[in-house]
Specification:
The complex is a heterodimer of chains A (306) and B (319). Chain A has 306 residues and is of the alpha+beta class. Chain A has nine helices and eleven strands. By secondary structure, chain B is an all-alpha fold. In chain B, helix 2 crosses helix 7. The chains are: A alpha+beta (306), B mainly alpha (319). Chain B: This is Polysulphide reductase, NrfD.
């Protein structure tokens, strides 16, 4: 997008709150840096979030796939701890098929296939709404129920939402969803009510390992860069940041991550793009098609005959 | 089920609900236990496919009614006006019924938001349904002909938008099956709208006065066939969702019906049976196309393949 449009639909945008109309003296943009390299999968964040935000229980099922029995983010789950189990070679840190037991006859000697992959590693990551710089859910909301807060976050006003559901397929991360009990859309608010009091969001407060770090986004980005460098020096070459870059498809995330594998392994899209980036083009194609249909119908009446 | 993101590759190269053999042509990819990356739209069937069809059909009908009026074709004017009113009113009803909180439907008009196709669409649909409803009342009552003509003219200004805004509504999402075809989808929907209105006109208007409607049905059907094909060809990997499974079946049926309709329309000038055949097949084709596109999008949301692989293949977005 060219700079003369002010990057209102996509591209780097230093201050989304100001773009949304807040005066320049609004609070700093706040966010999360989730460092998955120190996550222990305790799920204290999930529990703290549910308790503080009074979210109902949404199923006590066993997924049978891992220690993750939450499944995914949703209307009643605003923090979700993903849990991935991998077998790796400790010297090269390369992944090898883990060959977990399944149904039927046992598979032949997984040890030999695995070679030097003698170590199992667990990847755990506490996922959350990304509070995008360019939030598709907010862009497409027809009622104005979704809004940009003074902290640069994206929040649903439950008393305005009419449950149209447009935000649900608009989100490139699959975060926001409809609450069955209320019929309205619901997602992480970054604990809007706590931020106003100068408090830390419940999940970050509860995190025992500081895997979830809350603070001004600029500070978090600096801290994250340092952490990646540190990990690379320690030989954890697969450490990478996700969602930190203001030049990415959503203009950078307000909640970003340090990951130890490809994003899709954690259930995250590898290269998300805010759908409204293409809205001006879509409008042009739709206008052209609308003009074409009007002209064609007019043509149908020119032929005479009744 | 394996407990490794790595192993999910093998689980994901094929569709879980179909036997293997469909696996060919799909490269392995990684995912979180095969779970979807994006959320499946919560929009309900038949509400939303009906909303898509009815809105488009009523838009094209309104234009048909105004042009019939201008050319002194009273029977076609009447059918165009009534189809526009019934279609747009039913479209509004379907939209409201789909809401999670139907009592708050008026919040749709709380703001005007150009970044939301549903907001823009609501601001098209609300005055359009109001105007066409008033025109229909005048038409049935045989009253207030001049105001009715003015109101019909006003609705005709909004009508072209009615035929295409729903395409932007679907395309402006993260659903790969809808977003990746945003260039072609408005043209497919516009053709489908013209086919829908033309089919109803062909069936409901006396044969001697239905020639323009028959032409609309023929051109609309041809447009659906050709542009639908073009859309699939340009869809890349996403095309698989349009060709396989339930959406594939529905869209093949839509194409068959789109092929039947113009054939019947050619004889509809001479035969009442042919006129009704053209009307029914054209309407069914238009409905099936909307439903097929809707289902194809839902399939691409359910299956992480359509999200992960195309995003992996393209260059990372950098401004």
């Amino acid at each position: 997008m060219s700079p003369d449009t002010g990057n209102r639909l996509s591209g780097p945008l230093p201050d989304p709150s100001q773009e949304a109309g807040y005066p320049p003296e609004h609070p700093q943009r706040s966010g999360f840096f989730t460092d998955t390299s120190v996550c222990i999968g305790c799920k204290a964040c999930e529990v703290a979030c549910k308790e503080w935000n009074l979210l109902p229980e949404d199923g006590l099922n066993l997924t049978g796939m891992s220690y993750d029995n939450t499944g995914d983010l949703g209307a009643d789950t605003w923090r979700h701890v993903a849990f991935v189990e991998q077998r790796i070679d400790p010297s090269t840190r390369s992944r090898v098929d883990i060959g977990m037991p399944g149904m039927g006859a046992p598979e032949p000697a997984p040890q030999q296939e695995a070679g030097d992959a003698t170590e199992v590693r667990w990847l755990m990551s506490s996922d959350v709404c990304k509070h995008c710089t360019h939030a598709a859910c907010l862009d497409v909301c027809p009622t104005g129920a979704l809004f940009r807060s003074e902290h640069g976050t994206v929040v649903v006003q439950d008393d305005v939402c009419n449950g149209c559901g447009y935000c649900v397929p608009a989100c490139p991360y699959g975060v926001i969803d409809m609450r069955p009990d209320t019929g309205g859309a619901s997602k992480c608010t970054l604990c809007q009510d706590r931020l106003g009091e100068g408090m830390t969001p419940a999940c970050a407060k509860a995190c025992p390992t500081e895997s979830i770090q809350y603070g001004p986004l600029d500070e978090l980005r600096e801290r994250a860069e340092q952490r990646v460098e540190q990990l690379h020096e320690q030989g954890v070459t697969e450490a990478r940041l996700y969602g930190h870059d203001p030049r990415d498809g959503v203009g950078g995330d307000g909640a970003f991550f340090l990951l130890l594998d490809d994003p899709e392994v954690y259930g995250l899209p590898p290269d998300p793009v805010v759908t409204t980036r293409d809205l001006p083009a879509m409008a042009k194609y739709a206008a052209a098609a609308a003009g074409a249909v009007a002209a064609t119908i007019a043509g149908c009446f020119l032929g005479g005959g009744r | 089920m394996s407990a490794d993101g790595n192993r999910a590759e093998s689980a994901n190269t094929g569709r879980r609900d179909e036997p293997s053999g469909n696996d060919s042509g799909r490269e392995p990819f990684r995912s979180y236990y095969g779970n979807p990356v994006i959320k499946e739209p919560t929009w309900k069937v038949p509400d939303v496919p009906a909303y898509l069809y009815l809105g488009g059909m009523s838009g094209a009908s309104a234009i048909m009614g105004v042009l019939a009026d201008a050319s002194g074709n009273g029977k076609l004017r009447r059918v165009g006006r009534l189809c526009a009113a019934v279609g747009s009113t039913a479209s509004v009803a379907a939209l409201i019924h789909d809401l999670g909180r139907p009592a708050r439907f008026l919040n749709m008009l709380r703001v005007f938001k150009p970044t939301s196709p549903l907001s823009v669409g609501s601001w098209i649909l609300a005055p359009f349904s109001g105007l066409t409803g008033a025109v229909a009342v005048a038409e049935i009552g045989g009253i207030a002909q001049l105001p009715a003509r003015l109101a019909a003219g006003g609705s005709a200004v909004l009508a072209p938008g009615m035929t295409t805004y729903t395409a932007v509504l679907l395309a402006d999402t993260a659903v790969p099956g809808w977003h990746e075809v945003y260039r072609e989808l408005p043209f497919v929907f516009a053709s489908s709208a013209m086919l829908g209105a033309g089919a109803l006109g062909t069936a409901l208007v006396p044969r001697s006065q239905a020639a323009p409607a028959r032409r609309m049905a023929v051109i609309g059907a041809a447009g659906e066939l050709v542009l639908g094909r073009l859309m699939e060809r340009r869809a890349g990997r996403i095309a698989e969702a349009y060709r396989t499974g339930r959406p594939g079946k529905v869209l093949r049926a839509a194409r068959a019906l789109s092929a039947v309709c113009p054939g019947a329309a050619l004889f509809a000038g001479r035969s009442r049976v042919a006129a009704w055949m053209a009307g029914l097949s054209g309407t069914a084709a238009s409905v099936a196309t909307r439903y097929g596109v809707f289902e194809a999008g839902r399939e691409t949301a359910r299956d992480p393949y359509y999200t992960v692989v195309p995003q992996r293949e393209r260059e990372p977005v950098r401004q």
